[in-house]
């Protein structure tokens, strides 16, 4: 048995990490623009440091990024050369509604994406479009406080309606929010939330989460009304949690971490708030701000498919070891190697994640991000021999094939992060590269922006050509 011949092979990018042109053709300023490179970045992304304006003391990598805005034809042509069946990308909200609460959309922004979709169609590439990949117009943050304000739902609704109507017939696959669960880690990046001094963070986060969940269901409803052929998906940061030992305490901790991570997708996929979450809210004195109609909306507008990013797995321990090494999410796994940025490499974990998520939701799945961030070296002759990337992707594609061919998981497609080098969301670096295509730009904005093919470019081309049969 092999993969279905319609399996969607491709790659994924996000507007804020590649487009640049932050103030061209009427685009408004967004939260993603004010994320600086350097030591303030994390605190700003977490909503712990308020930096709402651009200043001269910082470098802001998203402002120009890799200038996809002016290179999109060249870039899509390269994707087509690899034989892409699907290209995942996102809309910059503030290109369409520069302030978020504008009466009318910005035609130049709409035109830009229409041209991209047409360019994709030219090469028979199916666009898979994320409505918002971490971005939110700054005006909505300053004026309304971002997603903690219920008004945000109607602004998002307007955006979604505009997109579905305008691109009817051009775009079939949509995702409502990128990595919706990441709100718990990066509230400013995900939801435009910068915490007030005495604000109850937990309440603010889950209030914003409720608004995003309602907005997501509303978008799903509108999409299906406008075009019943549209397939709408949710999107989670999908690493799984291993118990550190078989001690039931650790096993239970892994279960709790899984609950926390899956909560958003449980709602989007099943249509109701899970009991484990309602009980926790009760204990925390949090009342979900349900308004009349919310429950029905969630119930009646669940997603058509479940998508997720997969980079690594995590270790859950009931009692944190005092000497063990700590990573961003939990403890280090001694059985796994790590990338230069400390991300644990676990191909079998991807097969486990596919099985877990499929068992949990019984809906078609889509892996919409997977890849290795590495520091590539350009040789004297201009070649880039990224065998480590090929090895990473090969082992993960093997695992996904096992999940489909042996375990029977229903998988629509696979898009690597990212087919072309772009700005890292976490660090703002360019030197954390993921692409098959190299972009000449460094961490400080120097470089010609010229594109060149890495060794992995030719390898992935062959993988797609053979529908995943030839991985050598
Ligand atoms: C995902 C995001 O979390 O991981 C992407 O959806 C991001 O936007 C990707 O770029 C890789 O993370 P990083 O920090 O290496 O860019």
CATH topology: the name is TIM Barrel
CATH class descriptor: Alpha Beta
- Mean pLDDT level: 96
Low-confidence segments:
none
Largest sheet: 8 strands, parallel, barrel
Q: What do we call the CATH homologous superfamily?
A: Glycosidases
Strand order of the largest sheet: 1-2-3-4-5-7-11-12
Question: How would you sum up this structure, described in words?
Answer:
Helices cover 39% and strands 13% of the residues. The protein has one domain: Glycosidases (TIM Barrel), CATH 3.20.20.80. Strands 1-2-3-4-5-7-11-12 form an 8-stranded parallel beta barrel, surrounded by 5 helices. α7 runs parallel beside α9. It has 472 residues and is α/β, with parallel strands linked by helices. The protein contains 15 helices and 14 strands. Bound molecules: 6-O-phosphono-beta-D-glucopyranose. 6-O-phosphono-beta-D-glucopyranose binds next to loops.
Quick summary of this structure?
The protein is of the alpha/beta class.
List keywords for this structure.
472 residues; alpha/beta; TIM Barrel; 8-stranded parallel beta barrel; two-stranded parallel ribbon; 15 helices; 14 strands; 13% strand; binds 6-O-phosphono-beta-D-glucopyranose
């Amino acid at each position: 048995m092999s993969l279905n011949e319609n399996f969607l092979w491709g790659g994924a990018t996000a507007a804020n990490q590649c487009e640049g042109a932050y103030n061209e053709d009427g685009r408004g300023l967004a939260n993603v623009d004010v994320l600086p490179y350097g030591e303030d970045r994390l605190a700003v992304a977490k909503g712990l440091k308020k930096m709402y304006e651009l200043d001269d003391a910082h470098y802001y990598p998203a402002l120009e990024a890799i200038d996809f805005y002016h290179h999109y034809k060249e870039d899509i042509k390269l994707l087509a050369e690899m034989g892409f069946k699907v290209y995942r990308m996102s809309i910059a909200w503030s290109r369409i509604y520069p302030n978020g609460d504008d009466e009318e959309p910005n035609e130049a922004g709409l035109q830009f994406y229409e041209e991209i979709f047409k360019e994709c169609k030219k090469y028979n590439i199916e666009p898979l479009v994320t409505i918002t990949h971490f971005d939110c117009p700054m005006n909505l943050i300053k004026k309304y406080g971002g997603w903690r304000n219920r008004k945000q739902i109607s602004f998002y609704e307007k955006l979604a309606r505009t997109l579905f109507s305008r691109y009817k017939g051009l775009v079939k696959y949509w995702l409502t929010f990128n990595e919706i669960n990441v709100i718990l880690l990066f509230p400013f990046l995900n939801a435009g939330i910068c915490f007030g001094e005495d604000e109850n963070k937990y309440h603010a986060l889950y209030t914003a989460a409720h608004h995003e969940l309602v907005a997501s269901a509303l978008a799903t409803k509108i999409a299906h009304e406008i075009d019943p052929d549209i397939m709408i998906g949710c999107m989670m940061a999908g690493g799984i949690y291993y118990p550190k030992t078989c001690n039931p305490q650790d096993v239970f901790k892994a279960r709790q971490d899984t609950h926390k991570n899956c909560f958003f997708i449980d709602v989007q996929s099943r249509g109701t708030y899970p009991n484990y979450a309602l009980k926790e809210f009760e204990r925390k004195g949090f009342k979900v701000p349900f308004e009349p109609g919310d429950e029905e909306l969630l119930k009646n507008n669940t997603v058509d498919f479940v998508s997720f990013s997969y980079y690594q797995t995590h270790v859950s321990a009931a009692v944190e070891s005092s000497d063990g090494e700590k990573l961003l999410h939990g403890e280090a796994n001694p059985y796994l190697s790590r990338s230069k940025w400390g991300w644990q490499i676990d191909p079998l974990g991807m097969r486990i994640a596919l099985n877990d998520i499929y068992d949990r939701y019984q809906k078609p799945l889509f892996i919409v991000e997977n890849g290795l961030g590495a520091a590539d070296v350009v040789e004297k002759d201009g070649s880039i021999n990224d065998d480590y990337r090929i090895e990473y992707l090969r082992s993960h594609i093997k695992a996904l094939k096992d999940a489909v061919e042996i375990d029977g998981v229903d998988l629509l497609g696979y898009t690597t992060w990212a087919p072309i080098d772009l700005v890292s969301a976490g660090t703002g670096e360019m030197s954390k590269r993921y692409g098959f295509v190299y972009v000449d730009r460094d961490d400080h904005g120097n470089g010609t922006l010229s594109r060149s093919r890495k060794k992995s470019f030719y390898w992935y081309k062959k993988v797609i050509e053979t529908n995943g049969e030839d991985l050598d």
